[in-house]
Write a structure and sequence with these properties.
The complex is a heterodimer of chains A (156) and B (754).
Chain A: E1 2-8, E2 11-17, H1 23-30, E3 49-52, E4 55-58, E5 71-73, H2 75-78, H3 86-93, H4 103-116, H5 122-128, H6 139-151
Chain B: E1 3-5, H1 8-23, H2 25-34, E2 52-54, E3 60-64, H3 73-85, E4 92-96, H4 113-140, E5 147-150, E6 153-156, E7 159-165, H5 166-170, E8 181-182, E9 189-190, H6 214-217, E10 234-238, E11 248-252, E12 262-268, E13 271-276, H7 279-288, E14 290-293, H8 304-313, E15 318-325, H9 328-334, E16 337-345, E17 357-363, E18 366-371, H10 376-387, E19 394-398, H11 410-424, E20 428-431, H12 434-440, E21 447-455, E22 461-470, H13 482-486, E23 512-518, H14 539-556, H15 561-568, H16 573-585, E24 602-613, E25 616-627, E26 633-643, H17 650-669, E27 675-676, E28 679-680, E29 698-704, H18 722-734, H19 745-753
Parallel strand pairs in B: 3-4, 10-20, 18-19, 22-23, 26-29
Antiparallel strand pairs in B: 2-3, 5-6, 6-7, 8-9, 10-13, 11-14, 12-13, 15-23, 16-21, 17-18, 17-20, 21-22, 24-25, 25-26, 27-28
Helix pairs in contact in B: 3-4, 10-11, 14-18
The chains are: A alpha+beta (156), B alpha+beta (754).
């Protein structure tokens, strides 16, 4: 066990964990941040996505030690039901989920995309989210939600 | 910036408090609402208080055995209650899936929740409204027929100052009345004699009310079964053999001695699991633990071909004769033109995004279980049996897991957690790993449908002989779940049958037989190829076969596919109406398929198909493109028509339909479980691909609303016709007929060569 300093959602945290522990288990287990979710543990589905220094990372594969002193943003860091981030508001307005289990990845992926490309085309959105899986089939709504977040409206 | 060190103990304390608070909410709500507790030995459906309670502030708490599986059904059920009681939607709180605090309304499945459970809650609400009006009548000294209700306030017609709210009438007290209820589960009839509201007066039902669960799902505040935690909780992982329920010949505990935090290697019968203080320790230990498994007594089959041969050549244990009219055999032998073909469907996964997770706290002969099962009462029963304790000693609390498209392993993982908790005497949270989930997903069964059809000299379909051969659901009918089987419980049943819909019975032919045969599989059920209900069970292949055949005949007769179907869709006007409406919306021109051969590499095609799933009528038009050089099929657009009677929540329904279409395209083009005698081969998302953003087609939806009808299901029906529509579109594009799913590039190329 090591003491590891993390910067999560703008706050400094010190956790005790094995340095090789994937960041996901530290966020969920030590810090009670349940936004990032375990989907595959293989970096294939995106349910565990977080932002590390602004870039998406699969927290199920990233050793916590590799995230030390970097700026980690989780879904909780964007907003809450009481104070949602505009992307979260857009997802709510488009009712862009069913079970919602993969939505952490969708919202974080959208955040990373819109930070770099504020007005993406539909193909930009598809390309950028292609490595995020959803089994309920909410892709079309997710695309509309990201368009809404980008433009305040959905373009046909 | 504040720096704080959070210990695990503090964290568990805080999460524990939150979540335990949640878990006792049902009892608390009831006590709050009614001023006293209720017996927890099972809820009596003839007691109105079993169904709902009204608090002083007018909140209506509904206690339901139905659960949210990600489809939005809890929002829709709340709409039905709000409508019938005349209370604002946001005053209805749904407390769901707590076996001590809900009537057993059967499992949440088969797109029957609105149709059956919705009507049960509607009638219970109508009975409650009737009682509230009676109380108000006495209080306001006015006859019941002079009373009106708006937003939970009863007032006297013509004298609005005379009024009283539901909360003031009954808040915190029991109804203390009996209602009628007969039958069990889905089939329970609740207060059928109480008149319900006329649908033309509906204000809440029929509106696209946003789902109550979604905002928290976008912010990380939602508590899934994967998030439930209690104080002192440990973490478990299972260790399972690759091919069957072999016995662990040896377990080398020294192989994990260097992993700190391991609490116990749990062995019971053939069950092996590891319990540790942290989740990561449990994961590492389960991966590292050296277990030598005994040689399996039953080998897996060598691959899909052996399974299909077995399906063809093994005697059915139960035949369902769905339609039998005239003499199809004689008519077939005399037919001018004959069609005979077999259609193949592989094992497919439910493929939930989040592997199942449960928390179990077993203390002595009592157990508390949190999990995401679609049948809380069924899972409670299974766990009680496994632990050998009375059913009432097990308290199961539903927490939503990852999306369910049938029966998931949330039942199995609950047993795993219970075994491990009993072994260590502490609460244990168990989540499966991705490979566990891919392997032990109780799959949609492999299936073949064989069809013989005959046409006479005048171009009439005179013979239709449809034979479906499928495995039943081995994981059903009280058969033991995984852990139960590992500790020695034996299957009692062949399993539940894989449906009967879609064999062409929506058409009326003079000589027509539709038979679904069920091939025994339960002995093999403990392989990774165990089976269960997967969304619209069995209907996809039957409709693939019947709608491909119809299309083939239409093409041979040089008749447009829509016109040809309409000749025989005479049994129910709803199905012909949805077909016509969908074709119109899709801009369909009823040309004879195949379309003239395209000169380029990419051949466009359109195809149509119809289906009736549990009386919901659907029609699909697929627009696709086939790359003739690679065999790759791209689905461009699906137009889908849907008639499920009265629509409760249009946007919620559209969400379901879109999801069904995308899942249908995924299953038609991409999905197949690969295996050989050594085990299952695709154990992750790279080897079992599902649809991705860049493969998603446009979806256009045509809804027909029928307020005069009862509400029917929307969670499954629209998945049914899509495969056939795509296959027919491939034929239109290329003249090649695909008879085996999935339509991989290789399979399409082979078909093009024929």
């Amino acid at each position: 066990m090591a003491r590891i300093s993390l910067k999560v959602n703008g706050k400094s945290r010190v956790v005790e964990a094995d340095a090789n522990t994937p960041l996901l288990y530290v966020l969920r287990g030590n810090l009670a941040l349940h936004g990032p979710r375990f989907g595959c543990g293989l970096g294939q589905c995106g349910a565990c996505a977080v932002l590390v220094d602004g870039n998406t990372a699969r927290s199920c594969m990233l050793p916590v030690s590799a995230a030390e002193n970097k700026n980690i943003t989780t879904l909780e860091g964007l907003g809450s039901v009481a104070h949602p981030h505009p992307i979260q508001t857009a997802f709510i307005e488009e009712q862009a989920a069913q079970c919602g289990y993969c939505m952490n990845g969708m919202v974080m992926g959208a955040k990373a995309l819109l930070d770099k490309n504020p007005h993406p085309t539909v193909s930009d959105i598809k390309r950028s989210l292609n490595s995020y899986l959803c089994r309920c089939g909410t892709h079309l709504r997710v695309i509309r939600a990201i368009q809404r977040a980008a433009n305040g409206t959905v373009k046909a | 910036m504040d720096t704080q060190s959070i210990s695990r103990r503090d964290l568990l304390k805080s999460t524990g408090v939150l979540v335990v608070g949640f878990s006792f909410f049902g009892t608390a709500a009831r006590a709050l609402a009614q001023g006293d507790g209720l017996s927890v030995d099972g809820m009596d459906p003839t007691v109105l208080d079993s169904w709902m309670a009204i608090s002083k502030d007018g909140t209506v708490t509904v206690f339901t055995g139905k659960v949210e599986l990600g489809t939005g059904v809890i929002t829709a059920l709340a709409q039905i209650v709000a409508e019938e009681l005349d209370v604002p939607f946001n005053k209805v709180f749904m407390y769901s899936g707590d076996t001590d605090n809900a009537v057993d309304q059967g499992i949440t499945a088969a797109a029957r929740t609105i149709e059956r459970g919705g009507v049960q809650l509607r009638q219970a609400s109508a009975a409650a409204r009737q009682e509230l009006l009676k109380l108000a009548s006495a209080h306001l000294d006015a006859p019941v027929d002079m009373l009106t209700v708006t937003d939970g306030v009863v007032s006297v017609a013509g004298n609005p100052a005379k009024k009283i709210s539901y909360g003031d009438l009954l808040g915190g007290k029991r109804f203390n009345i009996r209602i009628t209820a007969s039958g069990n589960g889905w089939d329970m009839k609740v207060a059928p004699e109480v008149p319900a509201k006329n649908p033309k007066d509906y204000k809440v039902v029929g509106k696209s009310i946003p789902r109550v669960d979604l905002p928290e799902k976008f912010t990380g505040e939602f508590v899934y079964s994967q998030d439930v935690a209690v104080l002192g909780m440990l973490h478990g992982r299972v260790v399972r053999p690759a091919t069957s329920l072999s016995a662990p010949a040896s377990v080398d505990e020294s192989s994990i001695k260097n992993i700190p935090g391991v609490v116990k290697v749990v062995r019971e019968g053939n069950f092996v699991g590891v319990v540790a203080e942290t989740e990561w320790a449990a994961i590492q230990a389960a991966q590292a633990l050296k277990v030598t498994w005994s040689e399996p007594t039953l080998k897996m089959m060598s691959g899909p071909d052996q399974v299909f041969d077995y399906l063809k050549n093994t005697k059915s244990f139960k035949d369902n004769l769905v339609t039998n009219r005239g003499n199809p055999d004689a008519a077939f032998s005399q037919a001018q033109k004959k069609y005979e073909a077999t259609y193949y469907w592989p094992f497919q996964l439910h493929g939930m995004m989040g592997p199942p997770c449960a928390l179990a706290d077993v203390r002595g002969d009592k157990a508390t279980i949190w999990t995401g099962t679609q049948g809380p009462f069924r899972t409670r029963e299974a766990i009680a049996k496994m632990l050998n304790v009375p059913t009432k000693n097990v308290h199961l609390l539903y927490r939503e897991g990852s999306g369910s498209y049938g029966r998931l392993e949330s039942d199995d993982v609950a047993e795993d957690a219970a075994l491990m908790s009993r072994a260590v005497g502490k609460p244990v949270r168990v989540q499966w790993m991705r490979a566990d989930e891919h392997a032990w997903d109780p799959k949609g069964p492999a299936q073949i449908s064989t069809i013989r059809a005959g046409v006479d000299a005048q171009g009439n379909v005179v013979a239709w002989d449809f034979m479906d051969r499928s495995f039943p659901w081995s994981e059903s009918e009280g058969n033991p779940l995984l852990a139960s089987a590992q500790i020695g419980l034996k299957p009692m049943s062949q399993g539940f049958l894989n449906g009967t819909g879609g064999g062409g019975q929506i058409y009326t032919f003079e000589n027509q037989k539709v038979l679904t045969a069920n091939i025994p599989w339960v002995q093999q059920g403990q392989w990774p190829l165990r089976t269960s209900n997967l969304r619209a069970p069995g209907d996809l292949v039957r409709v693939f076969a019947s709608e491909s055949t119809i299309d083939e005949i239409a093409s041979d007769l040089h008749v447009g596919p829509v016109q040809f179907r309409l000749r025989y869709l005479t049994s129910d006007k709803r199905i012909s109406e949805i077909l016509v409406a969908t074709a119109k919306q899709a801009g369909w021109t009823d040309h004879v398929a195949p379309a003239p051969a395209s000169t380029g590499t990419k051949a466009p095609g359109r195809g149509v198909a119809v289906a009736n799933r549990a009386n919901t009528m659907t029609a699909a038009v697929a627009e696709i493109e086939v790359d003739k050089s690679t065999g790759e099929v791209t689905v461009k657009k699906i137009t889908i028509g849907h008639d499920c009677g009265l629509i409760v929540n249009p946007d919620g329904l559209k969400n379901q339909i879109e999801g069904n279409i995308l899942q249908a395209v995924s299953r038609a083009l991409l999905e197949e479980v690969h295996f050989d005698s050594t085990g299952q081969k695709n154990l992750d998302w790279d080897s079992y691909p599902v649809i991705r953003f860049e493969q998603v087609p446009e979806v256009e939806i045509v809804l027909i609303n029928r307020p005069e009808m009862q509400p029917l299901g929307g969670g499954e029906p629209s998945i049914v016709p899509v495969t056939a529509a795509i296959a027919n579109a491939i034929f239109d594009a290329t003249g090649a007929r695909l008879r085996q799913v999935p339509f991989t590039a290789e399979r399409v190329l082979n078909a093009l060569k024929v």
